[in-house]
Amino acid sequence: VRAFLADEVSKGTFDPSRPGHGDSHSKDFSRRIGARGWIGMTWPKRYGGHERNFLERYVVTEEFRVANAPVRLHFVADRQSGPILMKYAPEHVKMDVLPRICRGEVCFAIGMSEPNSGSDLFAAKTKATKTNGGWLINGTKIWTSNAHIADYMIGLFRTSPPTKENRRHGLTQFLVDMRTPGIKVNPVYQMTGQHDFNEVVFEDAFMPDDHVLGEIDGAWKQATSELAYERSGPERFLETFYVLVELVRALGDKPDTRSAEGSAGWSRSCTRCGACRSRSTACCRPARSRWSRARS
Amino acid sequence: VPEEQGGAGAELADGFAVLGVAGRYALAIPLAETLLAGWLLSRAGLNAPQGAMSVAPARPGDTITLNSDGTLSGRARAVPFAREAKHLAVLAGGSVALVETAACRLSEGISLANEPQNTVTLDRVTPLARARADIDQTSLMLMGCVVRAVETAGALEAILDMSVRYANERIAFERPIAKFQAVQHNLARLAGEVSAAMTAAHSAADAIARAGTFDDAIFLEATAAKIRSAEAAQEAPRSRTRCTARSASPASTSCIAIRCACSPGATTSATRATGRSRSATGSRRAAWKNSGRWSRRADWTCR
Fold this sequence. Notes:
The structure holds 2 protein chains of 2 kinds. Chain A is α+β, with helices and mostly antiparallel strands. Helix content of chain A is about 40%, strand content about 20%. Chain A contains 11 helices and 8 strands. Chain A has a 4-stranded mixed sheet. The two termini of chain A are about 35 Å apart. Chain B has helices at about 10-25, 30-45, 135-170, 180-210, 215-245, 250-260, 280-300; strands spanning about 55, 65, 70-80, 85-90, 95-100, 105, 115-125, 130, 170, 175.
């Protein structure tokens, strides 16, 4: 993996010293990664996957992140959208989409947050109404990363009102083809001028029945298990790792006591990172270690 | 320690497992110290005697020297349980020695957890046995770090269990207090800290049990485990108090977490041993400061 990345750096594909650049997208680069077998590593071979273990996937993910390589195009699909499809999509949809993800050809976005509801997913109002052969979507999603480059979105829409007993009832997940008429993507620029977030507006966008994922009205559990994929990988703490690297560089060889030992000091940050990494790798170890077994 | 040297012939991993359980039950006897001493002696091929032991030096800055006539001299501060130990395993230069505690001069002293913690002075003490060993003081400190981190994690686990149980038992305003979001928030914080401490400690224990040598990777594992578990030990009692304040819940487990985290014995300042991790000292100082505050609070909770 390191040799591949070094080769790409020497070819000028990306600059490893420029963090943030790794968030940009490069279609050709993602295809080359797919050709190496580094997308969908843990998935079944019949869907284009490689049946490797999660620790192997961890190693690849970490190396790419540390090198600041641009993986945005395929990463969300590899991390969470693919696994969701694998679990809930009809077989023919899986056979259509999953191999393309593995080849690094398609980009996914996640449609969860909405205006005026913050991150309270129960409050989702964007509606899917039953119609002949499918559903019509109306409403707005916001803070949607990648929507402007995405081929698909996995969207969480309201198919029934919540019940008095169960606030979580009434949400359904859909596989959204972003080329569907009636979908409009508006950029939300960041202070720095970067374009990552978007607002996605749905106006009578038609979703066929076979794009419903899992149980109608019962997507709450699916969405939370999707978040578990999202929050345990090394990218979570490596996204900001370069700040620590820069801090150490800026402080030089002889940092004063406060910058080294303080509660935000570099050495304490290093140990926190180390502990995060232990937790992250613990998530992908198939069997518990000998000592942990002895413990239990 | 191998059976032929008087040990149980168990593996390091088993020893760490025992210490995790000892931590859970706030065991107030020098078990960790005795195991660590036995391990140190076995590195030199020396037999472990019966009874409780401790280890010197306990701080990276302290050194014991081996004199040309085979006697030992030097001073080791904050040796945990020295007064209750019959023997000390002493690291002096490239040698490990077994010394009778009675042959040394011991200061009075107790730790935050009310356990003996003494300065041990050796003045031309003749050891009972001595042999060369391929271990340096940094390695001993790293081993101590992991021993303490594992105990701390065990104690924190117990604190979490007790807090969750209590929050589900105690009724206020006609509901178990666990139903209140403010209490849930504190329990979640506590659980996060406990999970961090446990993973860091387990990871380091596994790494040390697997590896034969103390290389850079072990250094990071061991110091990260020590610092992270000590940080958790500061935060955990705070969150716990917020969940169980006004209760007469036992403070002893918190005390052992604090003891493990703060006790300079054997370990805490281990990371000072090299210039690479100045943070340990900072974290230790902070831990001391906070634990002092907590120990007062603990007294109050006990009453």
